[in-house]
From TrEMBL:
Signal peptide: none
One GO CC term on file: plasma membrane
Species the sequence originates in: Candidatus Curtissbacteria bacterium GW2011_GWA1_41_11
Pfam families: PMT_2
Upper lineage: Bacteria, Candidatus Curtissiibacteriota
Boundaries of every Glycosyltransferase RgtA/B/C/D-like domain copy: 80-233
Molecular functions (GO terms): pentosyltransferase activity
Intracellular or extracellular location(s): Cell membrane
Protein name: Dolichyl-phosphate-mannose-protein mannosyltransferase
InterPro entries xrefs: LipidA_mod_glycosyltrf_83, RgtA/B/C-like
Membrane-topology annotation of the record: Multi-pass membrane protein
Top-level taxon of origin: Bacteria
Regions annotated as coiled coil: none
Keyword field: Cell membrane, Glycosyltransferase, Membrane, Transferase, Transmembrane, Transmembrane helix
Chain ranges passing through the membrane: 16-34, 99-117, 151-167, 179-204, 216-236, 243-261, 281-301, 313-334, 340-363, 375-393
Length: 514
């Protein structure tokens, strides 16, 4: 056996359990990985899929020395360009399909599972790390949203890695601290929730670790640098109006009025707390939340007793930062249930620590009942397995419902039909503002055409006929608002192709009746 192969074999043997857990997490995330973007919050995948397509068009334009596409025209200024750039790389390698977009968060989520294990091992012991990573792999929050093509699976993974190196830097380990700063920069550059990591990190560094002010301020300086980069990109590639829009959107998300497209009424604080509590219960399970709460209570008790616990106390950072995010962006988290994904590392690590503590307590308290140490060990492992099983099945029906959601199917169907029946340079008018409100993002991704929406009437068509004749197709949809006179006119003068409820009128081709 060669030295390299011997080293590899030893590494696999030493880390076999976490490797198996990582493989298991990859398998559960692979469920429906190529499913069309028709399910719960799948509009994120369609939205970033369009962004990735635009980025690749921009890259092609640069490589061909053309000026057809400008970066300002494709740059979504509400976030930095890192996320669409990652999706673009995956799409360029694997092609334009759902798997390509879901593969990016899947990879980051599996990496997060590994670093949850490493944090557990560092702060507690190897058993706690393994249990935390396994618990994370079976809860609905991870199984469904761990492959969601959006910020959360990626930024939470980067935050978890950054936190691991922060913990490893205790004891003045400069190499690990530099790695912490690198991954902190990537997390901050990926998405804004990571900025809420800065206050607890600063406070912990100053008052618990007793670092120098200069060292403690380094994360803050990096945060300011990231903000300045983003604002500069907006100003240089777009305009001051877009800068105001970026700031205004942030203020809107902070606001207490959660009325969004008329879907949610203005909430009261009680309603907000009730809604968020339900999100936690259905995505993290009651059992896991109970054990996490037990860990917090025990931590407070140990603080009161003034026990030395710097490393263990650092875990509270992963609790404080999502709390700050949750309380600041109340509107955002109210209408997006998956934003509580940021609590995943803390809840799984703290609950695992409580479960392992329970098992140790069982071992000590049953010495008189079970004389055999191996028998006590067996029962303690059975308790842990029972808890894992209970967590995995508590919300299994809800998880299966999530995996089978398909309420964006109309947008998916229409998008495919538009792509099938029209050419890439055709201009299409869909006669339904209701479809625009609910399915525009989905339609844009699957159709990849120039599409506009309007509730067109016969009167408007006659008054502005020259404008409407610029379209190549007008699409009417059954069971939506249709002017009968307009339908009659189009039906008798233009070629009709009907697929289900969708009627495609080709304005460049006359009706067979004529």
């Amino acid at each position: 056996m060669t030295p390299t192969l011997h080293l590899l074999t030893r590494i696999i043997k030493q880390n076999l359990l976490i490797i198996l857990i990582a493989i298991f997490s990859c398998i559960v995330l692979s469920i429906n990985i190529n499913k069309p973007f028709i399910g719960h919050h799948d509009w994120n995948g369609a939205f970033w899929g369009v962004q990735a397509r635009n980025y690749l068009s921009f890259s092609s334009s640069l490589l061909s020395y053309g000026n057809n596409v400008s970066f300002g025209g494709i740059f979504f200024s509400h976030y930095t360009p890192l996320l669409p750039a990652l999706f673009s790389i995956s799409v360029a390698i694997f092609g334009e399909r759902e798997l390509s977009l879901r593969l990016v968060p899947l990879i980051f989520s599996v990496v997060m599972i590994i670093f949850i294990y490493k944090i557990g091992q560092e702060l507690f012991d190897k058993k706690t790390g393994l249990l935390a990573s396994l618990l994370a792999s079976v809860i609905p929050m991870f199984v469904y949203f761990g492959k969601l093509p959006d910020h959360e699976p990626i930024v939470v993974s980067l935050v978890t890695i950054a936190f691991y190196f922060y913990v490893k830097s205790f004891g003045k380990n400069q190499e690990n601290y530099r790695l912490f700063l690198v991954f902190l920069f990537l997390a901050l550059f990926e998405s804004w929730p990571a900025f809420f990591l800065l206050p607890p990190i600063l406070a912990f560094s100053l008052f618990v670790k007793r670092d120098s002010l200069k060292k403690s301020m380094m994360p803050i300086i990096i945060g300011i640098f990231v903000v300045l980069i983003h604002l500069s990109v907006i100003l240089f590639t777009k305009s001051a109006i877009d800068l105001y829009s970026f700031i205004g959107q942030g203020l809107f998300r902070i606001g207490g009025n959660v009325n969004y497209y008329g879907a949610v009424d203005k909430s009261t604080p009680y309603k907000w707390i009730e809604t968020e509590s339900r999100y936690f219960v259905i995505y993290y399970t009651r059992l896991l939340l109970l054990f996490s709460l037990i860990w917090i209570v025990r931590l407070l008790w140990e603080i009161k007793k003034k026990e030395k616990m710097q490393r263990k106390l650092s875990l509270i950072i992963l609790f404080i930062y999502p709390c700050l995010f949750l309380l600041t962006f109340r509107q955002l988290v109210y209408i997006h249930d998956y934003k509580i994904y940021h609590f995943l590392p803390f809840i799984t690590l703290s609950s695992a620590a409580s479960v392992v503590g329970l098992a140790k307590f069982f071992m000590k308290s049953t010495k008189k009942i079970f004389k055999s140490n191996s028998m006590r060990t067996l029962f303690s492992y059975l308790i842990i397995l029972f808890i894992i099983f209970s967590v995995s099945i508590e919300r299994i029906k809800y998880l299966l419902t999530l995996e089978n959601t398909s309420f964006n199917s109309p947008g998916y169907q229409l998008g495919l039909l538009i792509k099938e029946k029209t050419k890439s340079d055709d201009s299409i008018l869909v006669n339904s503002l209701q479809f625009k409100e609910f399915f525009e993002v989905i339609i844009n991704y699957y159709a990849n055409r120039n599409i506009e929406y309007q509730n067109l009437t016969m009167k408007e068509f006659n008054e502005h006929s020259e404008q409407y004749y610029n379209y190549d197709y007008i699409v009417l949809i059954e069971d939506r608002d249709i002017d009968p006179s307009l339908k009659k006119l189009l039906d008798s003068n233009y070629y009709l192709e009907k697929s289900g409820p969708y009627m495609f009128f080709n304005l460049n081709k006359t009706s067979a009746i004529n």
